Amino acid sequence: MENIGTDYIVVVGGTNVDIQGFPKDRLILRDSNIGSVKVSLGGVARNIAENITRLGINTKLISIIGDDGYGQIVLEQSRKIGLDLSNTMILKGEPTSVYLSILDENGDMELAISSMDIYERMDIDFIKGYRKLIENSRLCIIDTNLPHDTIAYLVRNFKGVDFFLDTVSTAKTKRVVDLIGNFHTIKPNKIEAEILTGIKIQNQVDLEKAVKILHEKGVKNVFISLGEDGVFYSNGRITGHKKPPKIKIINATGAGDAFLAALAYGYYHNMGVEETAELAIYASVVALSHPDTINPKMSIEEIKLRMEENKL
Fold it and tell me: 123-126 long-range CB contacts below 8 Å, 24 or more apart?
């Protein structure tokens, strides 16, 4: 059932539970290892939605979970932070999407299994039920965990909506190559931008050429993540390159989710492209500074504090 407020952002895509195993000593394959196990909430769309909620904006997540214990954890955590999951479908007798990984003694992933078949249930019939909710939103963010046909139906049939895209991964970026011009704002990394444009990006000239292609296809705002080198941004009139401050990275997994949440915040508050890029970089800084995927201190006040610290 649709739950429509007065002023909100909609995020559509994946919700899952991340289970990570950490060995106490050197990882021994094909054996039982003493160590610790950490269970946390994940899913690109869910992470973005939580970050936006922590930035003080009414956020509604359209996703899909099972009616198992993990699904209950997702619901309880969302209630605690004020993230609206009333439009997330709970499937009876189905398991919530799980990403299971085993790390080695250095913290690098040795092996992982993803159980994400539940996302296939987010088909065209599923998304049709949310037309009014999405068309009345300030903006709608989509991640590429959705099936291609669902994304295509959304961006081609829901009118008057500015869609933001999180490409998620290089493999899933391929799902939206033919649809990219339907998005208002995108945040690919360099490799994903190469997939979307067919341009091999080796220097500044290539970067500008790729951005021009994306604008010609119809994208209004392009933010290309360059890792430690920051972000190259463009709205077709203003282009620039912003580098992040030097910080100690505690956990890099949530930086992209925080970045896109800040892009949504900038749009919501009618900020310019340069100001939005800077805000997004410092949102990433906040995310990088905490062991959890989402820094519980994430807020617009915390982001501005990091900005001020860097100016001193």
Answer: 123/147, 123/149, 123/150, 124/149, 124/150, 124/153, 126/64, 126/89, 126/150
